[in-house]
Write a structure and sequence with these properties.
Chain A is an alpha/beta fold. Chain A contains nine helices and ten strands. The chains are: A alpha/beta, B mainly alpha.
Chain lengths: 248, 328
């Protein structure tokens, strides 16, 4: 089966540190996969490379049969790769509505439009995205005034607005309580199932990982050391060593 | 509300025109200066308030607008109407060139580079006596015969400023304007929702420069003279003060600021040479007590009175509150 995203030999160093050190990965259409690993394993750097935050040193990234290596973030967005952030990353003084609407208008190619009135555009779609994540009633609030949980939802809503084909979530449940975590991941699962969306998420909460992910990739010191179904990963000797035998 | 742009235009032109008929020569001249400075401040706030870019070289474009007209008229001898059309275009092209280098930088580095370019343009104008007249400026500019009577010129200024003002208002409320605010709020995330930040910044820098050029052109024609001082960085500081005073996160804030600063300058300067001291005091009080500027604070107060906190306020594309200057 052809992969939607395939990565070969991806590498990135910062100074002497090999943050990502030769990663090979294939993610098929519709797959929900988790990337786990200890702090500093290179998970976020890997995300930054495949979402166009900065260029890689070596390697290739192919998305839907086309090479996308080192394309900048706006171009990847146009191709349907959208991302949410570990640390909440919103447009703080704008309303929730504007936060989501801007992503939608960008997706519709209206960024350079100087003639239409923005208040009238993409209203329904924006409201629909906001109600999908349960923020419809708060649409007119300024996003910096939201609670952390709602900010996380909005962060994901911005990434979902453009109907992505590949959704990258960097610790979607960071700082949330268990109930909020379940709600957010339930939401992502629901949308992914409905739209046949491919999701890669980085996560530290193992309950979330093992309940949501169909497949799991384990990163350690910039490399992928294991991949497979949750059952396989649970029994994987090297994973047990990395997670249990610290300092090994 | 959108289609009513034509109505706004008509009402604004009619009101201003009636005012200009009621005013004597002195106040009509003051009124023209206020309108021209208002346009200049609006063009500046497109960068400052909308995009979060603090430019210290904006006055150079104001000056280039006037000088392009003056040089074409005195050195080349092209017809005045052609010069009027060419001046903003030439200014926008120079803004495009300057912006090409500046928009690559962020925050204070952007500001410093705009300052450097602005001062280069100023210095060249100031020193090149054989071409620009140096610090003597260029005086006694010819104007199209139709615009020579002050009453006629007032109508022209009203017409141009209101038209440009409405164009800028529409720009600020278009998807493009929203993308500017998105960049102001969070440049990094903007890239991840598909907004090509550098390209958009270059476009807005060029547009802002072009409108500043129109203001400079109107100013040159008002006084029939141009001086290098119009380009000096202090002129940018003044337009920055106007924007802050009125409120940078509101559309009309810079207009109110331009009115206050220009009128104060005219009035107080006739009594004392220390008018900057008084302006400084006012600005200080304003920053301390109305950090969002006059219009920003009024808007906030009005919003609170109309809608008590718990009930959601109506959606607005502007004036979403919050203080502090964002430097992108």
């Amino acid at each position: 089966m052809k992969a939607l995203l395939s990565v070969r030999g991806l590498a990135k160093s910062f100074g002497g540190l090999r943050a990502v050190d030769g990663v090979d990965l294939d993610v098929r259409q519709g797959e929900i996969t988790a990337i786990i690993g200890p702090n500093g394993a290179g998970k976020t750097t890997f995300f930054n490379l495949i979402s166009g935050a900065f260029p890689c040193d070596h390697g290739r990234i192919v998305f839907d049969g086309e090479e996308i290596t080192n394309l900048p973030a706006p171009r990847l967005f146009k191709r349907g790769i959208c991302r949410a952030f570990q640390v909440v990353n919103l447009f703080p003084r704008l309303t929730l509505f504007e936060n989501v609407q801007a992503a939608l208008l960008s997706h519709q190619g209206k960024v350079f439009n100087c003639f239409l009135h923005v208040d009238r555009l993409a209203r329904q779609e924006t409201e629909q995205v906001l109600s999908e994540v349960g923020l419809a009633e708060k649409a007119s609030l300024v996003s910096k005034n939201l609670s952390h949980g709602d900010q996380k939802r909005l962060d994901i809503a911005i990434a979902l607005a453009a109907k992505p084909r590949l959704l990258l979530l960097d610790e979607p449940t960071a700082g949330l309580n268990p109930k909020e975590s379940r709600e957010i991941m339930g939401l992502v699962e629901g949308i992914a199932g409905r739209e046949n969306l491919t999701v890669i998420f980085i996560e530290h909460d193992m309950d979330v990982v093992f309940s949501v992910a169909e497949t799991i990739r384990v990163m350690h010191q910039g490399r992928l050391i294991a991949e497979g179904t949750p059952q396989v990963i649970k029994g994987h000797p090297e994973v047990r060593k990395v997670y249990l035998g610290e300092g090994e | 509300m959108w289609r009513s742009g034509a109505w706004h235009w008509l009402v604004a032109v009619a009101v201003l025109f009636t005012l200009s008929l009621l005013l004597g020569d002195f106040y009509r001249h003051l009124g023209m200066t206020v309108l021209i400075m208002a346009l200049f401040a609006l063009s500046y706030n497109l960068l400052l308030g909308e995009t979060g870019l603090v430019s210290f070289g904006h006055a150079a474009f104001f000056g280039v607008g006037g000088y392009t007209y003056a040089l074409l008229a005195t050195k080349v001898g092209t017809p005045a109407l052609v010069n009027i059309v060419l001046a903003p275009i030439a200014t926008a092209l120079i803004a495009l060139l300057v912006g090409y280098f500046c928009v690559r930088l962020h925050g204070i580095l952007f500001s410093m580079l705009t300052l450097a370019f602005g001062q280069v343009i100023y210095t060249v104008t100031f020193q090149w006596y054989s071409f620009t007249g140096g610090d003597n400026g260029i005086v006694g500019l010819p104007a199209p015969p139709l615009l020579i009577p002050p009453g006629n010129y007032a109508v022209f200024v009203i017409f141009v400023v209101v038209t440009c003002g409405i164009a800028l208002w529409r720009l600020a409320h278009s998807p493009f304007g929203q993308a500017l605010r998105i960049m102001r709020e969070n440049r990094e995330r903007a890239e991840f929702i598909g907004i090509p930040v550098r390209r958009l910044r270059l476009i807005v820098f060029t547009i802002a420069g072009g409108f500043a050029g129109i203001a400079g052109l109107l100013f040159a024609l008002l006084n029939r003279q141009v001086f290098p001082d119009d380009m000096y960085w202090a002129q940018t500081a003044q337009v920055l003060v106007m924007s802050l005073l009125g409120g940078i996160f509101t559309f009309l804030g810079p207009v109110v600021g331009a009115f206050i600063v220009t009128v104060l300058q005219y009035w107080i300067a006739t009594y004392t040479i220390y008018w900057l001291l008084i302006l400084g005091t006012i600005l200080l009080l304003c920053v301390l007590f109305f950090p969002q500027g006059i219009v920003g604070s009024l808007q906030e107060r009005l919003k609170h009175r109309l809608a008590p906190p718990p009930s959601p306020s109506p959606l607005k594309g502007e004036g979403t509150g919050g203080g502090g200057l964002v430097v992108g």
